[in-house]
Amino acid sequence: MSEKASSSENIVSQKYDRCLADLLVKAGVGFSVGVVASVIAFRRRTWPIALSTGFGIGAAYADCDRSFNPARVSGTRIISQTDENK
């Protein structure tokens, strides 16, 4: 049996699902680190929580951007159809 080819809609849907899961995980980790840092080092201030949650969201955004735009990854070369035949 041959596997059914994935449609472009399914591929995009899977990328969005991965991006959303990555966002939730990294924002959650950033929030947790911010809470711990706020309690231990910064006398219960709120800015460490906001800062570390923002770092997590930014990292997830960068990963998602690389997932949808592979040409932005340094060292990646896009080969066109005409280059493969040479």
From TrEMBL:
Where is it mainly found? mitochondrion
Q: How does it sit in the membrane?
A: Single-pass membrane protein
Indicate where this protein resides in the cell.
Answer: Mitochondrion inner membrane
Which cellular components does GO assign to this protein?
MICOS complex
Outline the subunit composition: Component of the mitochondrial contact site and cristae organizing system (MICOS) complex.
Q: What does this protein do?
A: Component of the MICOS complex, a large protein complex of the mitochondrial inner membrane that plays crucial roles in the maintenance of crista junctions, inner membrane architecture, and formation of contact sites to the outer membrane.
Q: Which family would the database say this protein is a member of?
A: Belongs to the MICOS complex subunit Mic10 family.
Q: What is this protein called?
A: MICOS complex subunit MIC10
- Species of the source: Suillus fuscotomentosus
